[in-house]
Design goal:
Strand content: 15-25%
CATH topology of the domain at 6-243: Nucleotidyltransferase, domain 5
Oligomer: single chain
CATH architecture of the domain at 6-243: 2-Layer Sandwich
Number of helices: 17
Bound molecules: adenosine-5'-diphosphate
Length: 496
Amino acid sequence: MADNRLILAIDQGTTSSRAMLVDRQGAAIGVAQQEITQHFPRAGWVNHDAAEIWETTRRVSRDVLDGVDLGRVAAIGITNQRETTVLWDRATGEPVAPAIVWQSRQSAPIVAEIVARGMADTYQRITGLVPDAYFSATKIAWMLDRDSALRNRAEAGELAFGTIDSWLIWKLSGGHHHLTDFANASRTMLFDIRALEWSSELLADLDIPRSLLPEVHGNSEVLCMTDAALFGAEIPVSGVAGDQQSALFGRACFAPGETKNTYGTGSFLLMQTGSKMIASTRRLLTTIAWGIGGEVSYALEGAIFVTGSAVQWLRDGLGIIREARDVEALAASVPDANGVHFVPALTGLGAPYWDAEARGTITGLTRGATAAHIARATLEAIAFQSRDVLDAMRADSGITLAELKVDGGASRNDLLMQIQADVLGVPVVRPKQVETTVLGAAYLAGLAVGVWADREDVRDSWLVDRTFEPTWSEDERASRYQGWQAAVKRALSSKE
Ligand code: ADP
């Protein structure tokens, strides 16, 4: 008899809460989605309402389960926006402050103090992260530093901290379980990723009471059962990972060296490095990919701020295309960018440059330059920026990339994927399943309860849509990349 078991995969993202029912083939047989409100109390601050996050998650979960035989639902998997910070009251289960979203810069002054105290290297050594307001640690400190009543309650053990995974698990379990997973814990900037425990030194440095913190568990194991009243049956929650780690798992990057790039608004590259924790000397982040069955795998991570959003700028800023996907036809109307380079540093440059003051720059314009050349240069820029990060990963890890696995909205662009293969000199492999992030959570949950026997079984369920093979000669690759690097130099704020 065919295995008809299903996984409920919850994808709690920055802009929406989504639920998807996934079968053993990785096919989505039901989806529900609801937007969540973005609160901008001041310039640079971004907050969410944790109660709304839970309400929307509960609603979309109920919507996809509606009419489904609950006996078929083997498990729940969760993937979530990372680093976003929630504090709640253990007695009432209600949030005690607005959730501070990963993008929010409101705790940047606390990061500046860390740097001024000369502690930045200590944080990086222990957590693998370059201190930044993105990560949860300074967001917790910000909440407690600004409200002495809240601090007193935290010290009395009345409050709980969690990233979104913890918050949802607390709610799903009816307030019985306060836990997180290795991957989400590694984004708090409080977790010792080598010793695999909360760091007493860093908790003391930021004056954060240990009693706030969740227990840390594996990414693929039964973490709790849902409160039966919620969906009408107790269902095990057995897979959790933050969005990028979930995409890495969903893209089946199970062996060291396997690397994925998600092309969305920005791009996120993660290279799985196995049991080796590689400290970056090139300003990449070292993070936990997942911990499963007592074995932890690490990853190197690089974020590029502006990739898909550069295409949005062509549409909204320049008005040379009507829809994002039109960029492909416009760029394909010319054989190359005719010497034009576009460095889309529209909000500064991320990894490996980390130059917040860099600004967008177009070089190589001549009388013959057209909108088509700029469109082509934009696609090339997305590919070149990925190469910048991958070269840094290669140098840090000593691992040579065999192929690049891709996903995300802009990976649908065939020309972009071909240019990416040409720029890197390795094949680029695109899956049939596009929803890789949510699929990762489904795989993690399903592996824990036997829906998939093992990772090879998952790999076998994987369908390749298309592989793009490199076509440029080595010389061409080298000279075009040099052209890009020269353009980047001009975009950086401190020019040598
Ligand atoms: P996110 O998850 O970050 O919201 P998506 O994965 O939905 O993003 O991808 C949307 C981004 O990809 C947008 O920035 C859009 O401009 C870009 N995009 C969408 N389709 C294409 C395409 N065919 N070619 C290039 N960029 C595209």
